[in-house]
Amino acid sequence: MLDLQRCIMQAAMKNTLSRPEQITRRVRAWCRELGFDGVGFAHTRLEKYEARLMEWLDGGMHGEMHYMAAHGDKRSRPAQLVEGTVSVISVRMNYLADAADPWRVLEQPCLGYVSRYALGRDYHKLMRKRLQALATRMERAFGPFGYRAFVDSAPVLEKPLAEQAGLGWIGKHTNLINRASGSWFFLGELYTTLPLPPSAPQSDHCGRCRRCIDICPTQAIVAPYRLDARRCISYLTIELKGSIPVELRPLMGNRIYGCDDCQLVCPWNRFARLSGESDFRPRRGLDGAALLELFGWDERQFRRKLAGSPIRRIGHERWQRNIAVALGNNDYSPDIAAALDKKRDDPSPLVREHVRWALQEMERKRRAPGAPGAKRGD
Q: Taking a C-beta distance cutoff of 8 angstroms, is the pair 62, 229 a contact?
């Protein structure tokens, strides 16, 4: 009886696979039901992207992100990462939430700016569960097939795959842009052994615009479509484990976790849509919290208050490092100077270094002519 059922299932699957467009149509419907805001289908030929990746790595622009150079060709050759992969289902999920105006936060140096993607709960588990649910539905309908789901969890060229899947084009800031939805979204992938027809790609619509290049606080976009991660504030505040280069600290302003400037000025983001996911709504007032409040969290408070947040992965030490730099970029304030002074001898050498730099900045500004607290004759 079991053999008969297996034969029937295999025959049904074979019949369905003879009409792959029916699979893609059903997958699109299921993705909408699962809360994805877009889905596309990509082939696995990434030769042109592989050449760009090698050039970028050879230039050392990945900084300390050694994982970008690891794993050989697996990042750009999906079938080497997951044997048998012939098609990739690429999905996107909007994360933009109803939050404090980002420009208002950036204009108030006493507040801490957190990248919009990190204001709510971590997206990794949420999207992986949805991709697994998609795969389960596909197995029930089409029979067993090989697959593996990824959300920033393996050597995957997610933006090139999404571009090939028709979800958008890679803009001059190196983020993916969708003509109808902007760029405020996460990406995920389902590698499959199913031979699915690839979606039609979108053409590049950046044109002559260079707003993202001109706005970058640290000039990390060194040329159109070319980002030097070593200068990027997102890299400096999230990926970099050691000391932030002194010459870049004043350029970071009050950005304590990531940076959105290149997306904030992108004209295509006027079409961005708010996410319907409650998990992406701001938590703990992170869309405009006071730096001094955040700086006052000890490690226990940091871990408790940021439970479930992507911010937690950088750890309390780097959180303190980032906030110390932001405090140092404020005008002189006795309250800021006092808060920094309390951590002058912090147990962490990393925190101590950045606190002492911030204290030097406070003292320099205090002594500047006309500064609040400046003494005549200083």
A: yes
Which residues contact residue 221 at a Cβ distance below 8 angstroms, ignoring those fewer than 6 apart? 172, 173, 174, 212, 213, 227, 228, 262
Q: Tell how many helices (H) and how many strands (E) occur in the chain.
A: 15, 10
Express each pLDDT in 305-358 by its tens digit. 999 999 999 999 999 999 999 999 999 999 999 999 999 999 999 999 999 999
Phi, psi of 43 (to 5 degrees): -80, 180
Yes or no: say if 224 and 172 are a contact pair by the CB < 8 Å rule: yes
Closest CA to 247 of 332, 325, 327, 336: 325
Q: How many Cβ atoms from other residues are within 10 Å of residue 208's Cβ?
A: 4
Coil, helix or strand at residue 58:
helix
Q: Which pair of tokens denotes residue 134?
A: 């998609």
Please name every residue paired with 40 in a beta bridge, in sequence order, or none if there are none.
90
Residue 48 has pLDDT above 50, yes or no: yes
**In the numeric block, which tokens belong to residue 117?**
């993607």
Task: Tell me whether residue 152 is one of the annotated catalytic residues.
Answer: yes
Q: Hey, which bits of the chain come out as E strands? A: 38-42, 87-94, 113-114, 147-150, 169-170, 176-177, 185-192, 221-223, 226-227, 255-257
pLDDT of 6-25, one tens digit each?
A: 443 444 445 455 578 889 99
Distances (CA, A) of 232 to 99, 270, 318: 24, 24, 16
The structure tokens 């980032």 sit at: 322
At 135, which amino acid appears? A
The model's pLDDT over 257-269, given as tens digits with 9 standing for 90+, comes to 999 999 999 999 9
Facing residues of 94 across strands?
185
* Mean pLDDT score, 17-38: 90
Mean pLDDT score of the chain: 93
Active-site residue (options: 73, 152, 279, 341): 152
Cα separation, 269 vs 204, in Å, equals 15
Pairing of strands 38-42, 87-94: antiparallel
Distance, in Å, from the CA atom of 237 to the CA atom of 13, rounded to the nearest integer, reads: 48
152: tokens are 């920033």
φ, ψ for residue 180, nearest 5 deg: -100, -10
Query: What letter represents residue 370's amino acid?
Result: G
